[in-house]
Amino acid sequence: MGTSDRNGLNSAATIEEPASAGERRAAVGNGAAPALRFGDAWDYAPAPETTKVTIEKQYELFINGAFVKPSGAGGGEHFDTINPANETVLSNIAQAGEKDVDKAVKAARAAFPKWAGLPGKERGKYLYRIARRIQERARELAIIETMDGGKPIKESRDVDIPLVAQHFFYHAGWADKLKYAFPNRDPKPLGVCGQIIPWNFPLLMTAWKIAPALACGNTVVLKPAETTSLTALRLAEIIAECDLPPGVVNIVTGDGRTGAALAGHPDLNKLAFTGSTEVGKKLAAIAAPSGLRLTLELGGKSANIIFDDASIDQAVEGIVSAIYFNQGHVCCAGSRLLVQEGIAATVIQKLENRLASLRVGDPMDKNTDVGAINSKEQLKRIREYCRVGVEEGAELREPCRSVLPNKGYYFKPAFFTGVQQSHRIAREEIFGPLLAVMTFRTPEEAIMKANNTPYGLAAGVWTDKGSKIFELAGRLKAGVVWCNTYNQFDAASPFGGYKESGFGREGGLQGLRAYVQG
Ligand code: NDP
């Protein structure tokens, strides 16, 4: 191998000679040129995001427009929030107890009449102001999101934060047009909304919850996930900067106990939850007796279906974005790949080649494709599914060649072939960069296999036949069906599931419905 410089074209290239005289003769006979080998000279140079952001040593609860210590002896409990990319402690976050949650709900209740009574145009102005401030502080928000959650900076910078701003802009536009959204009705806000969100898209889920609620005149108490509270707390600062009346938005951090205290509070008018189906079922049981309005956005095991008439290279990119985007921590991830039998070998080969080139590592590097797994527990869970899959008889393929950092929670994107529908890896939500590949022969079989799941969140269809797309989109039991693409989101487009993936929609006109009565 030649020596390599950073741009090394000539210095790094070597010519690989055929090993034997026979091979030499064959190469000359074929007219094949000797292969050029560049070693690692064409690898990406490190491109770390170097902008410095300030993270306080300790964060408190955001209640009634101010940061307040949690109740309890000595200023209440706090817990560490960790950077999963290097396992360092970023900050200490307040653990809200029942008393704190009660205080937050009371603040939201007190703020409600005035906020609900504001003309829609005035509420819209606040939302526009928040959206613009998010844009102004976008870089800082993206960096914190990546440090706290482990997702690649290029995703938080180019996907999460722009969508966060878009959600506030979009709902600002609706605030004074609710009568047009619901013609012949008199849409009124519900009151105080309890909102509980997960760790996979921390600020985006915050925006999905808060923006429509405020646009419709409600007040909110939001609980972020324990491992990723920092950007929601940054948004609290932005909200204060924008002079939103105190109590309209309250943020109570903490673990599942805080979520349970919020969900069980008797003075809520609505509860909105995104997270696991297991917790979603518990919340449904809490809400049922009191008739509390509830929307649930839960797990998924979405099918990504590739027909033999699809553009294969485009479909392979679609497979990668469907399951490896955000380390596979995506509720609608295309975690079951259904490939038509005749092209299965080609697709698998191309997928192996593509995975070999994915860059896994430091999420703060702008070239990183797959960042850190959100927590030690989640990494353990993904590894356990690897073991289970092999034990069940599937073949684990791990073509990714990245060298992982010594510290932090990392997992190289991989996939299983030889998967049966009854395997746990084909039925259960793994929430990691691990794909189950299965095959089908006819469209009928593809539909049957895709629908053979308790979930119903999303699906992908890859074909060049429009008629096939319409037929499948109508028969797949999934809230969202993407055609010749995957993981596209827009504030104007409703998102939500069927069956054990939950009910209710977020985004679009349909998403507003969950926040109005009348
Ligand atoms: P959870 O459903 O436990 O967490 C979601 C949110 O609910 C978090 O804010 C959590 O707090 C809170 N919570 C936990 N327990 C309760 C409770 N009893 N009452 C009210 N709120 C509660 O998801 P996990 O983070 O534990 O992830 C587990 C699995 O769930 C993942 O591996 C994945 O399969 C799935 N999941 C699905 C998501 C989706 O978008 N569909 C998102 C996240 C996870 P805290 O974080 O502090 O525990």
What brief labels describe this structure?
binds NADPH dihydro-nicotinamide-adenine-dinucleotide phosphate; seven-stranded mixed beta sheet; six-stranded mixed beta sheet; 518 residues; alpha/beta; 17 helices; globular
> What ligand species are in this complex?
NADPH dihydro-nicotinamide-adenine-dinucleotide phosphate
Number of strands: 22
**Helix coverage percent:** 25-40%
- The low-confidence parts are 1-12
What class, by secondary structure content?
Answer: alpha/beta
**Apparent shape:** globular
How would you characterize the overall build of this protein?
Helix content is 40%, strand content 17%. The protein is α/β, with parallel strands linked by helices and 518 residues long. The strands form 6 sheets. Strands 16-17-18-15-14-19-20 form a 7-stranded mixed sheet, sandwiched between helices. Strand 17 (414-417), helix 14 (424-427) and strand 18 form a beta-alpha-beta unit. Helix 3 runs antiparallel to helix 5 and helix 11 crosses helix 12. The chain starts with 13 loop residues before the first strand and ends with a strand. Residues 1-12 have low confidence and may be disordered. The protein binds NADPH dihydro-nicotinamide-adenine-dinucleotide phosphate. The site of NADPH dihydro-nicotinamide-adenine-dinucleotide phosphate has 25 residues, from helix 9, helix 10 and helix 13. NADPH dihydro-nicotinamide-adenine-dinucleotide phosphate binds at residues 196-200, 223, 225-226, 255-256, 259-260, 263, 274-276, 279, 282, 298-299, 331, 378, 381, 429, 431.
